[in-house]
Amino acid sequence: MQDYTQKASPFYGKYWIKQIIIQPGVTTIGNNVFYNFSDLNAVTLPGSLKTIGEHAFDDCKSLTSVKIPKGVTSISQFAFNRCEALTSVSLPEGLTSIGWYSFGGCKSLRSLTIPESVTTIEGHAFENCTSLVSLRIPAGLTHINNCPFGVCTSLTDVTIPLSVYAIEENAFDLCGSLNSVTILNPSCGITWNEYTFINSPFGFTGVIYGYEGSTAQEYANNFGRRFKAISDPAQRALGDVNGDGVVNAEDANEVLIAAAKYGTSGKTGLSEEDAAAADIDDNSLINANDANAILRYATAVGTGGKEKITDFV
Ligand SMILES: [Ca+2]
Ligand SMILES: [Ca+2]
User: Fold this and answer.
1) Residue 208 to residue 250: CA distance in whole angstroms
2) 194 and 172 Cβ atoms separated by less than 8 Å
3) What are the distances in angstroms from CA 227 to CA 16, 19, 62, 189, 215?
4) For the chain, first and last CA: distance in Å?
5) Helices then strands, each counted (H, E), the chain
6) Residues contacting 111, CB < 8 A, separation 6+
7) How does pLDDT run across 158-195, given as a tens digit for each residue?
8) Looking at the domain 234-302, which fold is it?
9) Which of 4, 117, 167, 183 could be stapled to 8 by a disulfide with Cβ–Cβ 3.0 to 4.6 Å?
10) Domain 6-233, what fold?
């Protein structure tokens, strides 16, 4: 399928179309092909697909879900921009790059798992996704560009993985609900201005978590942000799967997510350190037994118990 300018697409003006099925064999959806199909609510993409062009589904206001097939390695700029009804997006393992404004203004999108294979998220990619409450940034990402998650006003917490060495300004600008930012790379380069994390007219009133002596601490101190230290990975407590210094239900949840992933893909998606902290019964499997032990331990500690976590396996 070739590229078009917006008005030259053979489909231009056919906005009443509600469903599109793209036949197997098609490898490219050209630029602008389905631009502004305002009635389109379902699209089926073939397994042969490799690329989705710029503005391909831009302004398809009725589209509710999209499953991008395995084989697509990059999503071009503005591809799904302003798809305001989109509640579900499935991104494939193998995807490496998510373009500029590709999901900008997808105001109904609530949760998003970005595959571990993604190494580039361009600026504004998810800007204005105002319903997004749950976001997992992949462990292979190296760089957080300008404003990829700006105006994600429902996002409450975010963990920036060890692999990220640079965070640009406005990365989490105007994220009104953001109250926790965890930066796991102790020497991550954080753009030295106050607009990198913003949740209120007063700047950032949440907490920045990082290691003692990290650039995250230096940043927080310089801009008057609250800072809390997380424990050293070398001294990671058994059960602290997400490495935030406490063992609680969130860790049990991480274990269950990892177990489910293992069930479908044969990979837990956990780093070696995380996996070591997750395998409570030390049987080299990450599963519900480990999650259970974490939960029972967290409950016991919460009510004053002095047991060790391994007492619950
Ligand atoms: Ca934890
Ligand atoms: Ca285990």
Assistant:
1) 18
2) no
3) 52, 50, 42, 17, 11
4) 56
5) 4, 18
6) 132, 133, 134, 135
7) 999 999 999 998 999 999 999 999 999 999 999 988 89
8) Type 1 dockerin domain (1.10.1330)
9) 4
10) 3.80.10
Please name every residue paired with 82 in a beta bridge, in sequence order, or none if there are none.
none
Mean pLDDT of 133-145: 89
H helices present in the chain, as ranges: 215-222, 249-265, 272-278, 288-302
Distance CA 182, CA 228 (A): 9
Give me ligand 2 centre to Cα 238, in Å. 11
Three-class SS state of 259: helix
Residue 105, token pair as written in the block: 């203004």
Q: Which ligand is nearest to the CA of 287?
A: 2
CA of residue 280 relative to chain centroid, distance: 27
Question: In a 3-state reduction of DSSP, which class is residue 284?
Answer: coil
Question: Taking ligand 2, which is a single-atom ion, which protein residues have CB atoms under 5 Å away?
Answer: 279, 281, 283, 285, 290
Closest CA to 63 of 19, 94, 98, 26: 19
Mean pLDDT of the chain, nearest integer: 92
Which ligand has the nearest atom to the CA of 268? Answer: 2
> Which tokens in the block code for residue 59?
């302004």
What the block records as the tokens of 20 is: 């599109």
Closest ligand (CA of 262): 2
Read off the amino acid at residue 165: Y
DSSP letter, residue 98: E
Output the CA 26–ligand 2 centroid distance in Å: 44
Write the DSSP assignment of 159-201 as a string of letters: EE-TT--EE-TTTBTT-TT--EEEE--TT-EE-SSTTSB--BT
Ligand nearest to the CA of 292: 2
Give the Cα separation of 257 and 96 in Å (integer): 22
Domain locations in the chain? 6-233, 234-302
> How close is the Cα of 178 to the center of ligand 2, in Å?
33
Residue 52: C-alpha distances to residues 17, 32, 193 (Å): 19, 10, 35
Q: Residue 84 to residues 103, 128, 175, 209, 285: CA-CA distances in angstroms?
A: 10, 10, 18, 33, 41
* Distance from residue 274's CA to the centre of ligand 2 (Å): 12
pLDDT at 234 over 70: no
